[in-house]
Design a protein that fits this description.
The protein is α/β, with parallel strands linked by helices. The chain has helices spanning 16-24, 45-51, 66-76, 95-105, 127-138, 142-147, 160-166, 177-186, 208-211, 213-227, 233-249; strands at residues 2-9, 31-38, 57-60, 81-84, 90-91, 110-118, 124-125, 156-159, 192-202. The protein is 43% helix and 21% strand.
Length: 253
């Protein structure tokens, strides 16, 4: 089995070395293909990529944003399973081995696991939010997913067949493109949930998620409305209330 990991990158020289190491250090019964799609970084990112180019593939050229970079990577990937890890996030030790073992035991079209939140220095933070998302994940349903985006993007893995049928990410979404993709996948196939930590999401002062959480929340709400089947009005109302709550809570943290 081959697992392809895609990392979109732009001026993340402070973090990308650790991201790369977290991927290349994975061991298990799988072949690893690692592709970094850089948008034309002007910091030390390219020198870091050159240092590791024996163990990964990379390109650096202007793109139309994160979704475009991920789509470029997935189009170049040859793996049976596809993963997407941003250039400031990390895989937990043994993450890819766990995914490969789960697929061997019960082949999935897509799966997701748990994800811890860490700060710039790698210290775990926002543990309450992690516990809340883990609870939602254990009780997954499509209806529940319509009410909020609780699936952690770095901990998602997609079978090539599912990606080919679902198509690329929509480049018009700038903050919740992953949520749109989960709903597109979920409308076709139920995910396999792995109740273990697969990744770490880095929450820092320059991250898009921290700086634009209100825009991301409202974009996700619009996406949920577009994907909601008839009879889902209550789920969409719950999503609206969730956005209002997020805008209060995230302004304090």
């Amino acid at each position: 089995m081959k697992i392809s990991v895609i990392t979109p990158s732009l001026n993340q020289g402070d973090f990308i070395e650790e991201t790369i190491q977290s991927v290349l250090s994975q061991r298990g019964k799988f072949e690893l293909e690692y592709l970094v799609i850089d948008g034309g970084s002007t910091d030390e990112t390219l020198s870091i990529l050159k240092k590791h180019e024996r163990n990964l593939k990379w390109i650096s050229e202007p793109d139309r944003g994160q979704s475009d970079a991920v789509n470029k990577g997935f189009a170049r990937a040859s793996g049976d399973i596809l993963g997407w890890l941003n250039s400031d996030d990390l895989y937990e030790p043994g993450a890819l081995s766990a995914v490969a073992a789960a697929h061997e035991k019960s082949p999935f079209m897509w799966c997701f696991g748990n994800c811890r939140n860490v700060d710039e220095a790698g210290r775990e933070i926002r543990k309450g939010i992690t516990l809340y998302k883990n609870f939602e994940s254990r009780h997954y349903s499509f209806e529940r997913l319509l009410t909020k985006d609780f699936i952690p993007q770095p901990a998602v893995f997609i079978a090539r067949e599912a990606f080919l049928e679902t198509g690329p990410l929509y480049p018009d979404y700038h903050y919740a493109m992953d949520y749109d993709y989960w709903l597109r996948l979920a409308s076709r196939y139920p995910p396999l949930y792995l109740n273990r930590n697969l990744a770490r999401f880095r929450w820092h002062r320059t991250s898009k998620s921290k700086g634009h959480f209100r825009k991301a929340a409202w974009e996700a709400y619009g996406i949920a409305r577009r994907h909601a089947p008839p009879g889902s009005e209550f789920s969409i109302y719950r999503h609206f209330l969730h956005v209002l709550t997020l805008n209060i809570l995230y302004s304090w943290i």
